[in-house]
Amino acid sequence: MGRLYWKFFIFFFLAQLTAVSGVGLAVWVSNKKQENANAQIEASPPAKSLVASAAATLKFGGVNSLKELMQYWSSRPMPQVYAVDENGKELQGRKVSPELVRSANEVLSSRLTGDERPNSLVRGAVQLIEANDGRTYLLFVPAFQKDISNTKLLGFNARPRNRHLFPVMPLLAGILASLIFAALLAWYFSKPIKQLRQAFASAANGSLDVRIGNSMGARHDELADLGSAFDLMATRLGALMQSQTRLLHQVSHELRSPLARLQMAVGLARQQPDKLESSLVRIERESARMDSLVGELLELSRLESGDVRLEKELVNVDELLFSIVEDARFEGMAKEIAIQYQANPKAITLSGQHDLLHRAIDNVIRNALKFSPSQSMIDIRTEILRTELKEHKVIIQVSDQGPGIVETELEHIFQPFFRGSASALTDGHGIGLAIAKQIIEAHGGTITVRNLSHRGLLVEITLPLANSVA
C-alpha cells in the first residue's frame, strides 16, 4: 500500500471515528442526565398505581381524603406517596429535599412536552393535581426509602436500578465498521491514482503505448476522466513522436540528393578542370535548393511551434491577390498557362500579417501552376460568406485543370513532405501546402481541398473579415 492510501485511510477513519464517538457520547450524556433525574423517583408499576390512587383521591375526595389515605398508608410497610404543593411543603409535613422536587418536576415536564422517548418507563410516576383548596400538588413516590422494609412483598425492589453505562459495544461496532469502510474508501481512491502514477512513469521512460482507461472499470468520476485524458495525451504524444521521426527521415532523404550532387560536381571539377564553370553552376543550383529547403523547414517549425506573433494590419484582399496573380502569370508564360482572376466588386478587408498571407496564397497558386498542364487555365475567385451569427468571411477559391489527387491521398496533402502519386515528375519538397495550412489556421481560417468533377483540383481558403462582427 502506498503513502496516499494510508493518508486516505487515516483521514476517513478518524473522521468516522470522531462522528461515531460524538454520537455515542451525546446519547450517553443524554441518558445519564435522564437517569439522574429518574434515579430519585420510583417508577415501578406498584408505585404508579399508588400515585394514580392518590391522584384520584385528591381529585374527587379532596385534600382531607388524601390525608386520611396517606395516614393509613404510613402505618403499613410500603413506599409512601408524597404530595408537595407549589411552595415545596409536603401535605403531611414530611421533609422533602429541593433536589427530589426538582427531579419530579423534570420527569413531569418531559411528559408534558411530549418527549417521552427517554422517559417511557417513568410515565405516570409523577402527577400534578389541582385540589379543592386551590393549591396544586405534585404526587410521586421517592425511590430507595430506607425506612421501608419488606417492599419486595408489594412488588417493589429497593435496590438501585441498572444505570446507563457508556455504550462500549456500540462504539466498538462503530469503530470496526469505520475501519472497514475507511479501508475500502481509501482503496477506491488510491488505486486509480496509483495506476496513473505508474502510467506516467512508463510514459516518462518512453513507453507511450500504455493505456489505463480500460483498467478504470465502470468508474464514471473525475479520476476516470483523468485516465481518459492520459490515454488521449499518450496517443497524441505517440503520434507526434512518430511524426518527428518521419520528418527527420524525410529531411535526411531530401538533403541527401543535393548533397550527393554537390559531391559529384566537386569531384567532376577536380577531374575535369576544363568543365569548372558548369560544375560551379551545378554547385550553385544545389546550394540554392538546400537553402530553400532549410528555409522552408525553419518556417514550418516556427509555425507549428506556435511561436508566431502576428503583426496584424488591414489587408485588402484584391490588392493582395492582384500582386500574387501578376507574379504567377509571369511564371505561367513558359507553359502557356492562363490565370483568370476578377476582383470582387465589394472591397474585402482582412486583419492579418500581410507577408504571411501573401506566402500562404502564393504557395497554393504555385502548387496549381506546378501540376497544371500546358495551355490550361487556373481560375481564382473570391466570395463573401454571411452566416446567421453575423460572422462574415471571405472564401478564396483556386482551381486548376491538372490531374487532381487520388481520393485516398487527399487527407495527407497538408502533411510535410507529402508528395502524391502525381508528383513524381515535378520538383519540390512537399512543404508549401503544409506552410500554407499553418499560416491560414494562425489567422483563424481554414483550408480544404477536393477534386473537381470534370478534372483538376479545387483549393478553398476561408478567412474571417476584419469587420466580421456587425
Structure description:
The structure is a single chain. With 470 residues, the chain is α+β, with helices and mostly antiparallel strands. It has three domains: 123 residues, Beta-Lactamase (2-Layer Sandwich); 74 residues, Signal transduction histidine kinase, dimerisation/phosphotransfer (DHp) domain (Helix Hairpins, Orthogonal Bundle); 157 residues, Histidine kinase-like ATPase, C-terminal domain (Heat Shock Protein 90), CATH 3.30.565.10. Helix content is 51%, strand content 13%. The chain has ten helices and ten strands. Strand 7 and strand 8 form a beta hairpin. The longest helix is centred in the middle third of the chain and has 50 residues. The protein is elongated and about 155 Å long.
Topology:
Blueprint: H1 3-38, H2 45-61, H3 63-74, E1 82-84, H4 98-112, E2 127-130, E3 136-140, H5 168-204, H6 222-271, H7 276-304, E4 313-316, H8 317-332, E5 338-341, E6 349-352, H9 354-371, E7 377-385, E8 391-399, H10 432-442, E9 446-451, E10 457-469
Parallel strand pairs: 5-7
Antiparallel strand pairs: 1-3, 2-3, 4-6, 7-8, 8-10, 9-10
Helix pairs in contact: 1-4, 1-5, 2-3, 5-6, 6-7, 7-10, 8-9, 9-10
Query: Would you tell me the structural class of the helices and strands?
Result: alpha+beta
What is Rg? 50 Å
Overall morphology: elongated
CATH class of the largest domain: Alpha Beta
**Main sheet specs:** 5 strands, mixed
Strand/helix succession:
HHHEHEEHHHEHEEHEEHEE
Number of helices: 10
Which range does the strand content fall in?
5-15%
CATH topology of the largest domain: Heat Shock Protein 90
Q: pLDDT below 50 for ≥5 consecutive residues: which ranges? A: 114-119, 146-162
- What is the number of E strands? 10
Q: How many structural domains can be distinguished in the coordinates?
A: 3
How are the strands ordered across the major sheet? Answer: 5-7-8-10-9
Terminal CA distance: 61 Å
User: What is the CATH architecture annotation of the largest domain?
Assistant: 2-Layer Sandwich
User: In the CATH hierarchy, what is the superfamily of the largest domain?
Assistant: Histidine kinase-like ATPase, C-terminal domain
